[in-house]
Specification:
The complex is a heterodimer of chains A (about 140) and B (about 400). Helix content of chain A is about 5%, strand content about 40%. Chain A has about 140 residues and is mainly beta. Chain B is about 35% helix and about 20% strand. Chain B contains 14 helices and eleven strands. The chains are: A mainly beta (about 140), B alpha/beta (about 400).
Chain lengths: ~140, ~400
């Protein structure tokens, strides 16, 4: 579960040509991952070359099912290391997606103490500003 | 072949300005002081130094040092990351004949100096251009996962799950380190031993990482002089022969956040490095009498024990539990200066302690310390070295 304190900006991702497709999709409430057309392997974070076949022209953005399971997670419970824009406690989950890649995000409607490794989750989106959207993970049936 | 460097070079001088939480001087001042101390320790004139290797993140550039130290010419100068990889630079400079006396120095006033972490900068809204390599963390930072303790906590959680390890086991590392620190009269942070219970009730900073899992910030200035083993014979100190020094990397790596790789509950960079390190040295883990490991984050200590081959995968935390095997007198004494519990987050300090063990001057001296291993860069591109008595 994530809630914000007012007055402190959330860190925005630095967008460049390598990751722009990813964040553009997020703005449209879509999750996409980079895949090599030739060898059909998914990669995350996005990169400028397929590490397998070394093509720089073969990478495409493919929609994700949005579903995955929690591979690991942390809970920020004290202000010592937390980013002050976030109300405590908050969780960050590392989710293994059905496509095989892993991404981190906060949770939606899951109290910190209920998160566990193996939890089935799916992606959901929240517009935080007219030009800024982030994704979270909420519980789903197995 | 890199075997060519086996036993070819030696650490002949060390200079350590006492660690503190506020050195009250500029980094240029304390860097100069550490190099002067190292030269005195070796019995060298400052003018004889002809190579300077700087830790990339910390301390004044070689050009500043050169003009301050009064060195006319430098045959070699470089900047590199982490303690042991910088040592590889110094070793190659000397072993190749590019230079004669190489100084590696690390100077950082992290306790009293300006903020250096991404979150500190962002909170202060003064993100600088030189912080831009940190944008690679922007798949994490929008979610409030902003700093190494949080990054490492993600790996630690999976380490608990994958091998059924627990803080009750790896918590023995800070316990033993605090015992070592308490016997080190120069310890800055820990003056008396802590118990496992003290560790378990210490503040949870990012569940499952506690305050005592994270090395405190410190002000420090350290210099190490490397020359050939041949020249070392004529110098003042008993040389610490460099049997081996190596670096390692692994697929899908990113400092502390190699989250895309198959298993994040292990340190494959360290394992790759170790393979090379032991091969070059021609020794095995069983020959190592003490290990001075990167202890910036405690859960990485048992993971390093596994990667370095001191125990099997998943057994590192059990190896530490109870403390007996990692105390002086045990199978593998760890971080005998007290490591980060004494000297804070400062990777080159771990190499200094390895040299003290070889010289027989450690505050917790291990008997017959003929081979000592040190590491840095745990959780990312890793490096290490093996020192031996001559």
């Amino acid at each position: 579960m994530v809630e914000y304190n007012k007055g402190i900006p959330i860190m925005r991702p630095f967008i460049d040509q390598d990751n722009q497709g990813y964040w553009d999709a997020v703005k449209q409430h879509k999750l996409v991952f980079q895949r090599c057309k030739t060898c059909k392997t998914f990669y995350q974070p996005p990169r400028p070359m397929c590490p397998s076949c070394h093509s720089q022209e073969s990478m495409e953005w493919v929609p994700s099912s949005g579903k995955g399971i929690v591979y690991s997670f942390v809970n920020f419970t004290t202000d010592r290391m937390a980013y002050p824009a976030f109300k405590l406690p908050y969780s960050v989950v590392l989710v293994e997606m059905e496509e095989g890649v892993r991404i981190t995000a906060n949770t939606a409607e899951i109290p910190a103490e209920e998160v566990y490794i193996g939890m089935p989750v799916e992606v959901t989106f929240e517009d935080l500003a007219p030009d800024f959207t982030l994704y979270r993970f909420k519980k789903r049936g197995a | 072949m890199i075997e060519n460097i086996r036993d070819k070079t030696a650490i002949v001088g060390i200079g350590v300005v006492d660690f503190s939480t506020n050195m009250g001087r500029t980094e240029w001042y304390t860097a100069s002081q550490s190099i002067k101390l190292a030269a005195e320790d070796a019995g060298l004139k400052l003018e004889e130094i002809d190579a300077l290797v700087k830790n990339k993140d910390d301390g004044p550039d070689p050009s500043y040092m050169q003009k301050g130290l009064g060195i006319d010419n430098l045959l070699y100068h470089s900047e590199t990351k982490y303690g042991a990889s910088a040592m590889l630079d110094a070793v190659l400079a000397v072993a190749s004949g590019a230079a004669n006396y190489a100084v590696y120095y690390q100077t950082a006033h992290r306790a009293s100096g300006p903020p250096k972490s991404l979150s500190e900068y962002r909170v202060a809204r003064e993100l600088k251009d030189d912080m831009l390599d940190l944008v690679r963390y922007d798949f994490y930072s929008p979610f409030g996962l902003i700093d190494p303790p949080g990054f490492v906590a993600m790996n630690a959680r999976r380490y608990m799950y994958a091998y059924r390890t627990s803080p009750q086991e790896w918590g023995w590392v800070p316990v033993v380190l605090s015992e070592n620190a308490a016997r080190n009269r120069k310890s800055v942070f820990c003056k008396k031993p802590v118990t496992l219970n003290d560790y378990l009730i210490s503040k949870m900073v990012v569940d499952p990482i506690r305050q005592m899992d994270c090395a405190p910030k410190v002000d420090g200035a350290v210099a190490i002089i490397v020359t050939t083993a041949e020249r070392a014979k004529k110098l003042k100190q008993k040389p610490a022969i460099i049997s081996s020094v190596a670096m390692g990397a692994a697929p899908e790596g990113q400092m502390h956040t190699s989250y895309g790789r198959k298993n994040i509950a292990e340190l494959p960079e360290m394992a790759n490095m170790a393979k090379e390190l032991f091969r070059v040295a021609g020794v095995k883990p069983k020959h190592i009498k003490a290990a001075i490991l990167d202890d910036a984050f405690i859960p990485y200590v048992p993971m390093q024990l596994e990667a370095l081959g001191f125990c099997k995968k998943g057994e590192g935390a059990a190896f530490c539990a109870g403390g007996d095997r990692i105390r002086v007198g045990g199978d593998l004494p760890l971080n005998t200066s007290g490591g980060a519990m004494a000297e804070g987050k400062f990777d080159t300090a771990r190499i200094i302690e390895a040299v003290r063990q070889i010289r027989g001057t450690s505050p917790n001296q291990v008997k017959n310390a003929d081979f000592v291993l040190a590491t840095s860069g745990a959780g990312g591109p890793a490096d290490g070295l093996i020192l031996r008595r001559s």
